[in-house]
Amino acid sequence: MSDKRKKTFEIHDENDKIYVLDSSALIGGYNPNLINALHFITPDIFEEVTDEHLRTILSSAVSNEILKLRTPTQASIKNVKKAAKNTGDSVALSSIDIKVIALALDLKNENQNPTIITDDYSLQNAAETLGIPFKTIIREGIKQRFIWIKYCTSCKKQYPNTYPEKICEICGGNIKRRVLRKTN
Ligand SMILES: [Zn+2]
């Protein structure tokens, strides 16, 4: 193993490890064939991969049983959506992101210890809320969870994060999202 690879992934030779990969991990160059662990991805993400080289890597990992494709349960999808709504991350999470966390939640419910590999902050935030650990391959992982609110950029009126409109009902200004506070 080269030093360069160690530095990039900081993950190696973890026999009993289970990793759930999101698209940012694959885009970031994570190669499951090089990591001694069992990996899971959702069929959505596998189908999303159009790059031929990456497809070859993933297909080989699948045939070597290093990588497994698995669809998350509806029950877990529902739980992830609920948790993301509470922290205010549902705006930033795609349905594909939600399924990644739901897949990890399914594994956790089977008494396994999955870790999500992702560079996506909202995904990390929602995963942490559900007690699912994550690792990043490019950026530093967040240490805290964030609570988001929406507010008017003109009159500063605050709205709940679930507020669906983009225009302030008081002054017609633009509504934006920001971190209200961090929780540990
Ligand atoms: Zn306003």
Question: Architecture of the largest domain in CATH?
Answer: 3-Layer(aba) Sandwich
Hetero ligands: zinc ion
Please report the total strand number as a whole number.
8
* Secondary-structure element order, N to C: HEHEHHEHHEHEEEE
How can the largest sheet be summarized? Answer: 5 strands, parallel
Strand-pairing-aware structural class: alpha/beta
The oligomerization state is single chain
CATH fold topology of the largest domain: Rossmann fold
CATH superfamily of the largest domain: 5'-nuclease
pLDDT average, as an integer?
83
Approximately what portion of the residues adopt beta-strand conformation? 15-25%
Residues in helix, %? 25-40%
* Distance between the ends: 36 Å
H/I helix tally = 7
Can you put this structure into words, describing what you see?
The protein is an alpha/beta fold and 184 residues long. It has two domains: 3-135, 5'-nuclease (Rossmann fold); 145-183. The chain has seven helices and eight strands; from the N terminus they run αβαβααβααβαββββ. The chain has helices at 3-9, 23-27, 43-48, 52-63, 74-87, 95-109, 121-129; strands at residues 18-21, 38-41, 67-69, 114-117, 134-135, 145-152, 158-159, 175-183. The strands form two sheets. A five-stranded parallel β-sheet has the order 3-2-1-4-5. The chain has a three-stranded antiparallel β-sheet with strand order 7-6-8, with helices on one face. α7 (121-129) links the parallel β4 and β5. The model is unreliable at 1-14 and 140-144 (pLDDT under 50). Bound molecules: zinc ion. The site of zinc ion has 8 residues, from loops.
